[in-house]
Every structure is written in C-alpha cells, then in structure tokens.
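[job 0412] stage=fold_complex status=start
inputs:
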Amino acid sequence: MRLRVSVLMSVLAFTIGACGGAAPATPTSTVAAAPTSTALATTRSGFPSRSIAFIVPYAAGGGSDILIRSLDKIAQDLKVLPQSFTISNVAGGSGFTGKQQAIGKAADGYTLTIGDDSSVFGQLLNQAPMKYTDFTYIARLVSDYNMVVVRTESPYKTLKDWLDGAKAKPKGVSVGGTGIGNADHVQLANIEKRSSTQFNYVSFDSGGQVMTNLLGGKVDSAMANPSEAYEQMRAGKVRALGVTSPQRLADLKDVPTLKEQGVDYVVAQFRGVAGPKGIPADVVTYLEEAFRRVARSEQWKTDYLEKYQQADGFMGSADFTKFMDEFFKENEQSFKELPSLKQ
Amino acid sequence: MGDLAIDPVSGLGLGFQLALTPQNLLFALVGCLVGTAIGVLPGIGPVSGVAILLPVIFATKLDPTSGMIMLAAVYYGSQYGGSTTSILINTPGESSSVMTCLDGYAMARKGRAGPALAMAAIASFIAGTLAVLGLMLLAPPLTAFALGFGPEENTALMILGLTTLTRLAGRSIMKGLVAAAFGLALGTVGIDSMSGTPRFAFGNADLLGGFDFAVVAIGLFALAELFTNAEETLERPVIRTRFRELWPTMADWIAVRFTLIRATVVGFLIGTLPGAGATVASFMAYAIEKRASRHPEKFGTGVIEGVAAPEAANNAATGGAMVPLLTLGLPSSATAAILLGAINIFGYRPGPLLAIEHPDFFWGVVASMYVGNVMLLILNLPLVGLWASILRIPYGILLPFIVLFTLVGTYAINNNVFDIWVMLAFGVLGWLMRKFDYPAAPVVLALVLGPQLETNLRRALTISQGDYTTFLVHPIAATLLALAAFSLAWPLVMRVVRGRPTEVPVSNEEV
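[job 0412] stage=fold_complex status=done
writing structure:
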C-alpha cells in the first residue's frame, strides 16, 4: 500500500513539473505549414498522459481501419503524439455497436472513434441507437467520391445512355450498392431526382460483393468508390460513367463528372475522428492540432492518400461540427422528399 | 476471366524459388504457428487471427510476398487447429469446426481422441494440398464459376443447405425442426441488411449486429457440455486415451478414402463462392458424407468420417477462397476481406492485374501454401499425443480452465463483453435443450444459413422485381433447387417403393 502511494506521489509530482514547463506552448498557435518533428506539449490538464483507446467500429482491413492505423503510424513517425493508439475493432451493427461503446466511455479524449456519414444516415433511418449530436467531432480527415460503373460489355457507354435506359424502362436498370441507408443509396436517390429517372437499387453486404456481382453480370451497373473500381477499370473489366466529384479526379482523368453530363450533383463520403460528447475544449484543440499536423504532412500524402487512393478532406473541429449539422439538414430534407428513401 | 500470365509449371518454379528462401520459410512457419494457436483457442478464428497480425504488418515494411505468405498461413493454419478443442472438450475452435464436435467429441469419449486428432490433421493436410493444386491449375475456370454465383444461385445453395437439417435432427425430427426454427429466428436479430431496419434489437446497440455464430456455438456446445458434466459428477472417470492407439487404424483409413475426396471438392468449390465460406462448406460436407454413408445412423456416435469430412472441407475452402482473392481482388469471406486490406497495406492494389503484374507475389504465395501445409502436418501430428493427454487431467481441474478459455475466446471475437453474457445465456439454454433432448446442431446451422438465405432471396427478388421464376431460369439455381427437392423427397419415395410407410428415419446421434 505504501509503495502504491509513493508511486502515485511521484507521478503527481512529475505531472505537475511537466505541466509547469510546457504550459506556454499552446497547441493552437502553430498551424503547421511544415510538419514539425516535435511532440505537441501536453495540455494544462496533462493530456495525454496515457495511450488513447481508438474504437474502430468496422472490421480490420477495411477503409476506416486502414485510415486510423495510418493516422496512428504517421503520428508516431512524426512524433506528434507521445504514444500509439490502442486500436480495437468492434465491428457489426453497421458500425453502431462500436460507436455506442465509444460514447459510453468518459468524454476525456482517451476514447475516440470514427465520425462519418453513417452516423447521420443511421439516425435518419432510425437505425442508430444514438444521435449524430452525441459525438464531439474532432477532425474530418478524408473524403471519398462515388462512381457509376458498368461492365465493359455493357450497352451503356455514357451516363446519358444509362439514364436513358432507366427512363425508357423505369426500374428496369439495376444498380448494386452497399445497402439501404448507406451513402451510395442516398446518392442514387439524388441522381434519380435530378434526372427524373427510377433505378432498381439492389443492396449488398460490402463493396467487394457489389463488384463481384457486377463482374458476374448479376446487376447492370453499380456505385463504387474510385479505390474499389480502379484496378477493375485498369484491367478493362469495368467502365466508369460518371463521378460525384466537383472536378475530374487526378487518377481518373477520363471519367467525366456527373455535373459535366448534366446531372447537377456533387457529393462526397467522408471519414474523420470523433469522441463522446463533451470532450473539454483544450483536449479537442490538442487532438485537432495533432491530426492537422499529420494531415498536412508529406508522409500522409504519400503513405496514405496516394497509396490508398483517398482524397484529402481535412477539417478542424469547428468546421467539422458545422459540416455535420449541414449534412444532417440536407439529408433530412432528402429523406423527406425522395420517394425511394421514404420508409 | 482471371487469366494468369505464366503457365503453372514455370510459375511454380518461380514460386518455390521465393517460398523456399530462409526468410519466407520463416514467415510461413510463423504464420503456421500463429494459425495453429488461433485455431486451438476457442472463439478466436481466422478473422481475428489475421486481424491480430495487421498492426505488425503496419508497423514494419514487410515485403508483400513474405507478408502474404504469413497471413495466408495463419488463415489455413487456423483450420488445422480448430478441430483440437472440438474433439477434446466439445468446444469449437472456430465456426467451421462446429461439425467436428459431433463425431470428434464422441470419439474422444470412447477413448479415441488420438485417431480423431490425427485424422483431423491428415484430412486437413490432404485437402489443403489438393486445394492449392486446384488453385494453381483451375484458377481461371473457377473464377468464372464463382462469378456465376449471384443472389439466385446463393439462395438455392442455402435452401439445399437447409435440407441437410433433416440429417442432423437427432432422435426426433420434430425436435430437430423446432431447434432449426429457433436458429432461423435468432438469425433475424440485428440490422436487416436489405432495408437497414433494426429488428428485435430493442434499441440495444449490442444487438444491432445480431448473434455471432461462434458465440452461440460455444455456449450451446462447450458450456452446455460442462454444465451437464458438472451436474453428473466432477468425479467422472478420466477418459483413458491409450497411447498405443493414437493413430487411425486400417479400418479408419478405408472408411475415409472417398470421404476425403468428396469433402475436398465440396469445400473447395463452396470456398470460392462469395458469402458461403468454410463454415457452410463443413456443414455441407458432413451432410453429404452422412447421406453417402452405408451407416448414416452411426453419425454423431463417433465415426471417423464425421471428423474427416468437415476438417477436409474447411481446409479446402480456404484454398478456394484464395481463388477470387488472388485472381480478381475480390473477397469471398470475412477473412479474405482482411487479406484484401492487407494486400493494400503491402502497397499492392488487389485486382485482376495483380497476378499478372506481380507473378512473383501470386506464385510465391501459392508455392508457400504447399510448404505451409507440410509444416502444419509436421507441427500437428506430434501434438496429437500431447493434446490427447489433456484428457487425463482430472475433470475437476480441467473444467475451470475450459470455462476460462471459453470466456476469453468469446470476448476476443468482437472485443465485446456483451458477447460473454450471450454465450453464458446460450450455455444455460444448451443445457436445458440437452435435458429435453433438443439437438444443438440445427440451431447453429440455421443461424448460419438463415440470414444468408433471407438476404439472397430478397436480393434476387429485387433484381427480378418480384418474379419468382427467376430461380428456374437460372440453370445453376434450378439444378440446386432440384437437388434440394430430391434430397427431401428421396427417403419418402424409397419408403413408398419398399412398401414400409410408417417408419421414420431414425438416427440416434447425440448432438
């Protein structure tokens, strides 16, 4: 017992000492134009003094998992954070099981999870046991676009052919996607509205399954992220008819945007870091700054964005929170208006 | 579809040059060791096994071929170890080893744990090696076969799978069907993947993902067995495993000579299909074996074919799963999806061009799978004696350890404490089911097949816009449905032909 008390005392003394010395360096002061190799000073309250538990609410090896593992690794390589995350994958229940576990923990910054569009869609579909406002949004990291893809042998050569096919025979053209209430489903509904068409949306369990069924000719077309479709396109198995980005993507110069082809619709999926609601402002600022340094680094560009074909979508906490509110309102409207989204 | 740039002979030459370097041999060995350990531990299956190694891969700049050699070895290695706890303590090491419990544990109770363990290892070896051969020689046509399986075909396959329930029903068909209906009902819990609506989750985030098959199986099999034994007496006589009889007898070999071939083919083909995987493969192989057997009534009482069939099938299935992964970059199972992520992390982009642009990667991995299977056999056979001697430990000492392993294993599946409560609840339920003579196997079988049947059926009907004839115009689907109908009708027809209308086919397995 005595030993424990003395250990506690020395830890306390150490913390106080560390805080005293490091206090002036407020994390917000530096917007890292060039990545620094020094760790951020801890906050006044001594955050972080131990490893941050990151609950990835999706399976290992998936998009979110690779994002967080890359973030963790590069944060360590750049020495932005003093300790690695302790990452656990709590998959299942469309990500809500893991998110629920995370928001049940103390809002002290030591438990983080993914903040993404699924939190909004889940609420609008009454799928999620929580609201999107039950999170503190710390930083948005990436955005990802979607493409309309068909097999190379498909008669649809352009987006117009595809839309005309659906006009000629409402519900006659099938579109594979990753599930009702997921981004691609909402996106298709918006495309339908803007082009006065009706497609037959078929939902699958994963992007891999969508692609398998597209290649096997089980569905006429599909919605797929550039990173999912790129290799199939390069092998000449799949053709992209349009992408939801504002401009053509650097990797895929030949793929016209939807907007160019008369469908005025630009949208991105996004992923970032969130935590339980009510994380203290200084801790949020600390984490936001750490993630900003990572996201602005050269290593992030080469080892994450380029390697995994992701688009930078960095936003700080305030912007990300505002963005979530707007994203929610916009989609709430869509869910009211669009017939194929109404339940 | 999925053509390979090089012919198999020169490809394999290239592959073995890579696979036999000291570094890659070491990675294969590490993968085999980790895989075996993952397999032996209850609950933690290949999905978590591969996932556990991902951070290691992230932290180190591993050569892609070496990394994939290691991860693939974990994947197929886990199928070797999975049978161990099934046989010894009625605890499935992972979901694809549930069927091995039925006859494997029965064999152990008869003092034949040794032959059961040895047969599991050898069946795994033979099937694993044949599957690599299939992967190497038949990848392009198999890729086309796998792509031919859409929602219609999968629906028909799941219906065929469900007809095998009648083979697992135990003493009473009625009780078997009640158990199956319960399993189907369990399968409806969670977010409905077609509409996104939560069903029977009662606002509980832990229920949104539904009941994990492995969690339910550990409860119903392992824990229920413990409760039953504890209730009888802790002074249960130690099972004598005679060390002279660790090896399968001549009669055993004769019994399994066709089993191994049948189960390998079934497992391999099912493994290539998206969604089905090693678990369905092991069910199917067991059911087919029982059907083909001259003494189906003995299945469940400790026949060696009942061990060889699922163990060969689940190994062959991992080989099958590598086909779409390596030729198209498309995952057919949860583990394959993680391997796909790993290929990304290595810096390669998985897709149809991977095997063509990086023949060293493809052939290196294929060649290493031959090597790995030999390693696993060498690793596992000497362990047979060690494992079998575990049963000599007095039950009163063994029991708490088994409880501990099931608890830890269950938690490790999803890192979720809730799963432990679920497992305990199913343990109590399984104990009650035994008391009233309800079989457990149909529950888990229905829990695996039910959700897949439902989503595929609804998916197929979405595509056809409600037209049920879609199942008849797809030739593979129609054939599978005809087989299912035949499988149900055959016993009835035989009875009418033989003029013995009253007798219901009875099997007295202990499930």
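[job 0412] summary: The first strand of chain B starts at residue 190 and ends at 191.
[job 0412] exit 0
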